[in-house]
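Schema walkthrough. Field components (list of strings):
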Amino acid sequence: MRNQRLSRRTFIRSMSATIALPYLEAMTPLSAASTVAHGGIPKRLAFLSIPFGVTEETWFPKTGPGALELSEGLMPLLRHREKVSVISNLTNKFLPNTVHSGNTTFLTCANLRRDPKIRFLNSVSVDQVAAQHLGESTRFSSLELSARKEGGMGPGLSLSWDHTGKPMPAHTSPIEIFNALFGSAGQSVEQLKANLNQKRSILDILTDDISMLKRYVSKSDTERIEEYTTTVRQIEQKLEKEEHWAAQPKPTAPFDMPSQPLGGSEEVKIYLDLMVAALQTDSTRVISYRQPLNALIRELGSSLGTHQVSHYKGFDTRTDVSKKKDILQSELLAYFIDRLETTKEIDGSSLLDHTLVAYGTGIRAVHTQKDVPIVVAGGRAMGIKQGQHLVYESGETPLANLWLTMLKAADVPANGFADSTDTLDAMMV
Amino acid sequence: MPSLRTLLSTSTLLPLLALPGVASEGDSSFVWYRKAGSDAPQKQQDIDVAIEAPDLQKFFGLYCIECHGPDFDEGDFRVDELPNRVSNEFELQRWQDVYDVLNSGYMPPKRETQPTQQHLLYALENLHSFMGESVDHLAIGENQKLRRLNRREYQNTIHDLLGVMVPMADIPEDNAVGDFDTNAEALTLSPSQLLSYLEIGRSTLDKSLPENFKEWEAFFTPPDSVVLQGEDMRQQDLRRNKNAIRNMQAKYRKVQARLDAGATFEDLSKEKGTGDARSFSRQHRVLGRKAFNNGWIHYDKIPNSKTTAPLVPVGNGLDELNLKKFRESPPGHYIMKVRASRIHRSGAAPELVLSRAKGVQGRAEVTHQGSGYGEYTFRIYLDPEDTRDITLSCELPLSNAQTSGLLSKLSQGKAMGIYVDEVELVGPYFDSQSQQTLKSVFENTNPFKLTDEQARLAIRKFASIAFRRQPVSVNYINELMELYQKELTRLRGKRKQASTLEAMKLPMSVILASPSFIYLSENYSSNWISDRDLAVRLSYFLWGGPPDAELWKLVYNETLHIPGVLVQSIDRMISHYRFERFINGFTNQWLELDRMDILEIDRKKYPNYDGFTKESAKREPQEFVKFVFQNDLPLTDLIDSDYAIINPPLARFYGLPEPEGSGFQQVRLPFDSVRGGLLTQSAVLTLNSNGDRPSAVDRGAYILRKFLDWRHLEPPPNVPQLAIDGGNKIHTVREALSLHASMPQCMTCHQHIDPLGYGLENFDTVGKWRNSEKIVSPTDLSQMVEAPIDSMGSMPGGKRRFNGVEGLKTELMKDRDLLVRSLAKSMYSYSLGRASNPTDGQVIDHIVQYVVSRNYSARALIHAVVASRNFQSH
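Field assembly_structure (string):
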């Protein structure tokens, strides 16, 4: 029995080597402190999205290219004008399946229909490519956060899609995130290890059933079986990582456990606080957060649906709400930048300088899916030049170029990402 | 007499589908695909997926070729080199580019000759339908074989297996792609999902398995009944509230005495240490209200207050009854019978509401009066771990002004509300199927003291049942057994008396996360599916869960595939209470009813559209469709019917005669009623609105999709939105939409959509009849015009003009085969877990023909889907 088990595991490992799965090097993580000692202050990436698009007339800067002059919809960022840039006219060449799927391919730039046999096939998102590299030495390779699913987001469980193009589930409750980051299971290291071992033997049994299934299902089912095997392997890798970190106590939380979610911008702020806390304690270096909209519109005292607001053109009340929600969303981004800025690294520099933030969505306005709204913030210690309005030729520059630029800024070895053609050199110092 | 099966195998003719009691001989309208000994149908690999591209060379010749042709291949793009036949995504993309630049007006460039409206419309129409068709065409896939259980099916399957209802919120969310939650493509598996299957399995077993032998025996005894008397429960509340009132009055009087003696709020607040006079005075006022304007003071003036629990909606908890005792009941399904009557004789009928915390679980309108109590029944699932309050409360459909008068009425002995005489809780009712599981798993054993042999047998049996009778490998059982033994040793190391059943939970939870459980796997030994696979497909199609004992018996006898037996089984399943899951699964998704949940109805404009009306309205189409299937009525009833399935609040909402009793019932429609069918139901009209005003566009598109079998018309990307009612002109909806005709880019679709929607213009946002439309000026809100409704419309393409909803229904009735087709495709796709595609065309044709030949019988549709080639083969 034992031998067989070992051989199966060896088999899985060797297989994962051939198809180059993520986390392979994650088997030997370094502690956060030693990484800092070895490689200096870590570089981080954060990705924020909003559902649907923006009020294009008042969101995009009126001047440019050149020094950033903020427009009405971005005015709350005024105090950060030197730390943010707006990038106009980046485009995802491939359209998501509907005109209202703002977040489905935002971070993947995938052609969802590239395989004629499959109607919906996404590919890996940029944060996961980054996590493969930046996640080696942190407790969590990456964090995926999301508000409850709502209109304007499109298919997906978060902004993140794994290396096989599967949707990655998100943490959808602040308490859950807090517990993952800072909560202790109240177990001794031995108990924890015993639990992990039990889980491992359970995974072995689950895979045994797979071999039975393989015997009688058809060849075309092997993909699904492969998926199950991959999932088991991913769990094994997760357990491996957990084991490495078992002896390492979790960091102390910089604030108390959040209370029950309040909804609206207060709740968004709790998520943003948790993101800052996760980066600050070096629990992870890559985070994606799919933000809500519906609750924000309620907060503005409007009973309009988010879809109605997205079709604001020609309706006075809708345009009014659409503009107001742009501003509220920008206020939240400004809040996030505040928090990153006031959080200091060991050397006294700010967390913001070591974190490159991207904010936007895959829809410009209404049904327009090209020239999408993008704000980047921070990352000055990563070679990013801020305070600019970069303007590319309409519809011509892939959004993937931005993601490639961000990967490079974070020292992730990548030659290309999705349909990227180049890096956005103007972003760099 | 030869068995049916021999008949099938010896017959040279294709055997026909037999309906019970109907001779199948001679009925050639439907082909029963499955022939014993015949080969499986052709697989789709052989089918050429290439599709003809539209011929637009004339258009290109006029407007494009000069720059994008042999002379100048601007941007490396030549229109004369576009592929004539498209067989892959990359070729299609080149056409998509053409479509996009024409749609967005980006090409031809403004300085060049612009196409005429007519030419552009022609090109766009062709491109639009070509794009839509090729997406379907290129997406030709095989039947998905291995499909993961979706959330809904997982919940049902666990329930049928172990009798525990896992809260939906605890089950990981599925990705939503496509029209139905059964779509295999979307049902991927993530690490955290697999881990939560292990966890949910474990906690379910903790709830489901008995803790000791006594409980184990009790598990098989009949349900218990607990009766609570209304007055007993109320006396406690009354004492508590009277005490509280006494204390509050004393406190108030003390302060008041000081005030009367000349003290100021300033003084008093300083004494208290706060010095905040304003907040002190406010608190004092509030206290005074609570102490003297409190319904409980007048409690004894309610006529039957000594013998019942009166619920009077005047606040301070007098409107509700907390059923604390019931919270401790063992987990399971219960029936709660409430003996109740209305207190007031005239005026609005009160509603009895059963809630968990704030969430409404059930409502009933109380029609019995005084001492003539009626019995109002609710179904409820209880679990002692669920600590939410269980309350009965009273709601009155009154305006705010009327509600504020209730307290003074109460003080005059004229209380309005509900008497609750007694509440009986009967249960738990274990699902007989789940009871059966545990009975057979631990047959002839004491599960708390299993021998190793018994444990091994129990593990094997449980795996076999959980895997829906798929084979289980010896190796797998060995490993589970090893896990069990280790767990038993571990538990006994901690606590000597730990039971074998406690240790069984671990291997059993592993079974509930194994691939054979979470995937609907099938056995590929032959081309036609086995009876076992057929039973599983059938039960997940119609019950969203595993087969029951009855179906397994037919599998065991190898008779399920025989047409007569199969049809009988389908009919049994449709009549079964579990068919409700088909309604919650298929009907909800087909009618897109969940869109109602995210819609905010403007209550200022529609004050009568309260919570109960909305709940009832959402329920109506489900009850209606269920009625049509369970009574095997013609599917054309979905277009128009001479009855409605409604409850009393909906009857009042529609102005129809009220049905007797409180639930949904069939009501014959008066001759001149505008109702009947699906399209005039409040839910369908509401969900195709903006919440503040109706949407002719949404309604038209909905009719196209559901009734006329059109593809979902996605708005094309990158087309600028028209500024519909901008400026200061006052437009009716029709006038605003007529702008669509001004741009070929819009007209392509909207010429088909909008005129259909006009037919329903007489219905307001929530579906009430209106003869005129109120239009407010966008710039001056005080300026309002009342415009008469114009409900002239036409079928797609401006053909067959009609007037109003009656005209619309008449036209839809002429095209009724399209409704059958749309339903057939959807049901087919729901049952197979994949979208239907052009290669299914022939199968869909056969299904439609059969249903038509059966006079549009609703059940015939389900029979034909099940009998179809792809349902019967791998």
